[in-house]
């Protein structure tokens, strides 16, 4: 079915699809630990708290909407990834999920490396003290300027994404008198969706160099010949919000196959393999993500087994989780404004943000959950759609959810699992100001990215 059937907005008057996970929960006030950050709970008055601070206080001090990030949870998840993979592997946090200087410092302290994919992300990483050798530089269309900055800074690796880039990076490195460590990103013909994957010979997308038709082998041939490059490994990233490990299995099998061909042709055993990111998180109670230690065990076993079969030394593995580190650690706090019951359908609950702070629902049909945060309620369930304040009917934050029927303007509601790809994809649509990110830890809250102001808007608009 074509997605363009609803070019500017929602499916109108749709009811809950049959078999949908959503049924009114037994207890509307309950918080499913799966979707909420680690320290989130309700205090004795029923108010949602995080890091020991209640959301009414957060709203008063920082305003709404706001992304509230549980620093304890962020650090715990980062550490869990690091520990799970141990010293024989590297974890590169994918900065595209959410990047700020505070986050860079936490990552640095917790021993994670960082994947950046633009000059802006590189600058943020370097300015917060991430050692350049722990940075990987990604992107399918890096500019000459970005490449030069990355090489001059001394990034640990540049992930080459095309034949053109192999030549370009080699040339720039050589002209700077350097030899740049690089990986080649290959497309292995594995297309992963949330709950499934498709293995094909080809992948029809812009990233990487296909394994198919010997293209990746040719890329390796060229990279090995160029003086400006030190080829250290092969990179594969198969998708995002993945639950099924079998996609990684096929990818690892195909990448190890390439490593074997390289050994046979060139007598070189490349020392590294990067399996990318993409591990899924729970947005609703229906999702069942794997723990980092399970993922580490599965990936390590797959690569080790494939290498034994191919009689190769097992390369050093790296992974690039973004969403799985930061996604569950934050929620968005909104104030309820207009409430509009549509008889026989649902109630539209408008909040003071919307598609400018969370585009994922409109863009990917993503599902989210929501809870009344400023109090508990004994009222019955009300089928709701949480919408924003934008001039567009597709401006939906939570498509289908139950909220208490006594919900009123001025109540605070919270949407969990908004740590990844919400602030980082936020926009100024309708000149709505992007919300702050407030980090909470051990009873203290501080702004790590401040709220945009109207002065910020006018500063860019030079008139
Ligand atoms: N490594 C590479 C090379 C990537 O392209 C990505 C994500 C990651 C790692 C991190 O993937 P993660 O672990 O966060 O799934 N905006 C979309 C997601 C786009 C992901 C792009 N690449 C969303 O909101 O779902």
TrEMBL record:
PROSITE patterns: ODR_DC_2_1, ODR_DC_2_2. Substrate binds at residues 323, 360, 364, 392, 421. Keywords: Amino-acid biosynthesis, Decarboxylase, Lyase, Lysine biosynthesis, Pyridoxal phosphate. Residues 73-326 form the Orn/DAP/Arg decarboxylase 2 N-terminal domain. Its cofactor is pyridoxal 5'-phosphate. It is an enzyme of class 4 (lyase). The modification N6-(pyridoxal phosphate)lysine is found at residue 96. PANTHER family: DIAMINOPIMELATE DECARBOXYLASE, GROUP IV DECARBOXYLASE. Homodimer. This is Diaminopimelate decarboxylase. It comes from Streptomyces thermocarboxydovorans. The lineage of its organism: Bacteria, Bacillati, Actinomycetota, Actinomycetes, Kitasatosporales.
